Structures are given as C-alpha cells and as structure tokens.
Amino acid sequence: MPTLLGPDASKLRITLNPHPVALPNPTDLQFGKHVTDHTLQIPWSATHGWHTPRITPYQPLTLDPTASVFHYGFECFEGMKAYKDASGALRLFRPEINIARLNTSAARVSLPTFDEEQMLALLAKFVEIEGRWIPNIRGYSLYLRPVIIGTNPGLSVSPPTSALLYVVASPVGSYFQSQSQTLSPSGTSAPAGIVLQATPSARYVRAWPGGSGAHKVGANYAPCMVAEQEAKSQGAHQALWLFGDEEEITEAGTMNLFLVLKLEDGERELVTPPLDGMILPGVTRDCVLGLARERLPGWVVSERRITMGELEGAAERGMVEEVFGTGTAAVVTSVGRIRWKGRVIRCGNETSLAMQMRKWIEARQYGEDEHEWSVLVETLVQAPLGDKHQGEAEVELEARL
Ligand SMILES: *Cc1c(COP(=O)(O)O)cnc(C)c1O
User: Hey, which residues does 259 pair with through a beta bridge?
Assistant: First the structure.
C-alpha cells in the first residue's frame, strides 16, 4: 500500500484539558485502571495521508458502526512506558523499537505506516504534557498505549481507506500488585513464582508460521482468552503456548519465555525461542539477551527451539534452574511450575537471574545506570516550543518539535 510521508510533528495542535482530574493515590494504581487527561490523535486517509496531529482532552471516540476495526480486526497497538528519574526528568526506554514495531504491525494488517522520527517527537510531547501523572516514587511509570484502527465505513473486506492513530496513557505501579497472591505487593515474585499451564496444541495455538504472531495486532489476543481462562479455572496463572507435534515452547500468556539450564560442564545456558515468525520480538526479551551477553561471562546464550520433552527431561535430571517470562508490563516474572498433560514440571528453586535482570533493566529504565537505552524526553521534544495561545486553551505550536 502506498503510504504518504507523515505525520508532520511541527503541525501539532494542543488543546489542554480545562478540567484536569485530581491525581489518584499511588497505592490505588492498578494496571490500566486510570487514564490521563489527554489523548494524542492523528487521523489518516488514503487521499491525504496523515492529517494534523492533535493532543486533546480525553474523550470517547465517535465511529461509524461499520468502521472496519469493528468487523475485520484492522487494529494494532504498542505497549511501552515513560519513567521519572531521581531528578524528576522524564525518560522513555528504547522507544524507537516500539515505534518501529508499531509500523511493522500496521503493515501486517494493511494499516498505514508512518515516519518514525516524527511519531517519536509527537509521543515525547504527549509524555511531557502528561508527566505529572507519574508519581515521584521508584517503581511507578506511565504506560503508553499507541493504537492504530481502521475507521473507514462500509462492510467490504479491503484495506482501510481511513485510519486513526491515537495514544492513551495510564499511570501504573507494579503489574502484579493486584493480580496474584503468589507475588508480593512490591511486585517482586515470591520464590514460588507463577504456575503456567501448557495449552494442548491440538486445540489452541497462539501463532503459527506465516501467521501474525510476531506482530502486536489485536486479532492475536481475543482468540487466546478461552485457553487463558481454562488455565485459570484450573488454578494456573497463565497459559503456556506450545506449537506443533513436538510441542515446542513459544510464549507464556503475553510474555516471552526464558529458561536457565545447567550444562554438563557446570556452566549455564540461557534459552529463549528464536524469532521465527511465531514469537513476539519483545523489547524486554532483547534487553535480557543483551544484558546476558554483556554481563554473564561463561554463559551460553541461545535463541533456539526447545520442546516440552527437552524441558521435562532436563527437569527430571535437576538441570532446570530457573524459568521466567518477560514483558514491559511486569519486566520479569518467575515461573515456579508448569503443568503439562496432567504432570507437574518443577522449574527449579532459583529466582536469582530473574531478579538480577529486573534490577539491571530497572536501573537503566530509571536512569540510575545511565545508558543509551534510556532517552530523556526533553531531548526528543527539542524545546523551546514557541507556544502561541489561540482562544482559551488551544495552543498552536510553531516551532518544530
Ligand atoms: C507485548 C508482548 C510481549 C512482550 O514484549 P515487550 O516489548 O517486552 O513488552 C511478549 N509476547 C506478546 C505476545 C506480547 O504481546
């Protein structure tokens, strides 16, 4: 699909919310419960490309009931976070990866792609406006949810001729705070870890070769919920997704999965499935791999296939030290047990690598370990902005962001 260049960040128009709400108590924050005062919205049409970007007060969308997002799943999204460092400065963590991934997701479902640098500048401005929502307490952040939807009316099954990119933000504490009794309130996994239930691959498959599993498209998630609910109704926390006759391990819930195996020579192997088109290329996954290669001398770091049979065999020989999942929401989540075909595989008692990785990653996210992965929002916004007041609340930005 031909995509016109844009959006143009210098055209951003900002209408500040005249009624900003009182900030919630930090202890009351749950994942996705509260939203901030504004959204960033950028409409697109096949005839004009990306239209004027706008930051406006948060409000419901109005869409035609035949809009293509409602019928054929023309939707993709991202999940990323903004942080406040000890000096109060706002930071994004490897945002260019999320922005690029949103583009590849959009392309996979025939939604329009965009200029990544301009999008990042717009996102940074949005974060700056919503910065007050991040409590000045370590562990808190602002979850950012960019979305692209097909908005064209009409019931024909064809690539969208109009679309809307919008961003909502939600202040968050620790993901598992309210989700699981096995995890302590500080969000660090108790040594027990969560229980995964391997999903019977004859009945439920999350992703397959040539499918869309490597992309964050909404259509991947709704069909997974029956298996997740089945796992939960049987006392597990999340589903473990397998693929194929050999029951390859792929992902757990919406996390990438890592295993720590003891090798015959006493060394360790860190294993995660390869990016073969069935695995979501997680930012956190990439961080864990990068940190392992950088900071774990002697370890074998493998992106390779691993089957349930190999895992069970290794567990029986006492060679599985640790299993953990990774994702932006919870960073690292220890796995204690995996249920498979009526059996229980114990995933070792160690949680040391999971905890170490969480510490290393968070130190970079909060700017304590100053590193190129963490980007100061102010450097993306390229202030000073020449604000020109128009009427009551509308501010037109003249300077390029
Ligand atoms: C978002 C997501 C992940 C984790 O990706 P991060 O970039 O680390 O947040 C893993 N698996 C699935 C299916 C996901 O949707």
Answer: 271, 323
DSSP-based helix, strand, coil % in the chain, nearest 5: 25, 30, 45
Tokens representing 316?
């029986």
396: which DSSP letter? E
Those residues whose C-beta lies under 8 Å from the C-beta of residue 265, and which sit 6 or more positions away, are none
Per-residue pLDDT of 276-335, as tens digits, reads 999 999 999 999 999 999 999 999 999 999 999 999 999 999 999 999 999 999 999 999
Residue carrying the six token digits 């088109």: 277
Percent of the chain whose pLDDT exceeds 90: 83
- Tokens 């979850």, residue located: 143
The answer to whether 57 and 17 are in contact (CB under 8 A) is: yes
Any atom of ligand 1 within 6 Å of the Cβ of 6: no
Task: Give the residue, by CA position, lying nearest to ligand 1 atom 15.
Answer: 254
**pTM for this prediction:** 0.91
Q: Which band of pLDDT confidence, cut at 50, 70 and 90, is reported for residue 15?
A: very high
Which atom, in ligand 1's list, is nearest to the CA of 328? 9
- Evaluate whether 219 touches 233 at the Cβ level (below 8 Å): no
Q: Is 27 exposed, middle or buried (0-12, 13-18, 19+ CB in 10 A)?
A: exposed
Beta strands in 46-140 (DSSP E): 49-50, 54-57, 75-77, 80-84, 90-93
283: closest CA among 334, 325, 327, 333?
A: 327
Question: What is the pLDDT averaged over residues 253-265?
Answer: 96
Ligand 1, from 93, 255, 275: best to mutate by most atoms within 8 Å of Cβ? 255
**CA-closest residue to ligand 1 atom 12:** 254
Number of alpha carbons in the 13 Å side-chain half-sphere of residue 227: 24
125, burial (CB in 10 Å: exposed 0-12, middle 13-18, buried 19+): buried
CB-based contact 53:42 (threshold 8 Å): yes
